[in-house]
Amino acid sequence: MAKTIMIVDDSASIRMVVGIALRGAGYEVIEAKDGKDALDKLTGQKVHLIISDVNMPVMDGITFVKSVKQLANYRFTPIIMLTTESDESKKREGQAAGAKAWVVKPFKPEQMLGAVQKLCLP
């Protein structure tokens, strides 16, 4: 059975590029346009990994990560931050919130897929 990955990004083009790469590698993909939209879509189904932007309207990525870590079903779901943000203090904030990896845009799809394969829950 295919593993499910959620992509959270306010950019439709980023969701599309990441989605194409993931689907091409055999993953199921759930897309969300911001942190709140993503939380609304986490309804108890198994999600093996979440890829989230940091800077988004409505609910930013760091707040989203903190919220996910409060949900019993998703407490241990690994999260990759995919962002233009390369600031060390933001990275530390993301890690403190529970993010497992930090991929800076622009990214190479194979670089992202490598991180996904390492972190995807069995």
TrEMBL record:
Gene3D superfamilies membership: 3.40.50.2300
Modified-residue entries (4-aspartylphosphate), positions: D53
Keyword Flavoprotein: no
InterPro entries tied to this protein: Bact_response_regulator, CheY-like_superfamily, Sig_transdc_resp-reg_receiver
Pfam families attached to this UniProt entry: Response_reg
PANTHER family documented for this protein: CHEMOTAXIS TWO-COMPONENT RESPONSE REGULATOR, STRESS RESPONSE REGULATOR PROTEIN 1
Name of this chain's protein: Two-component system, chemotaxis family, response regulator CheY
Lineage: Bacteria, Pseudomonadati, Pseudomonadota, Betaproteobacteria, Burkholderiales
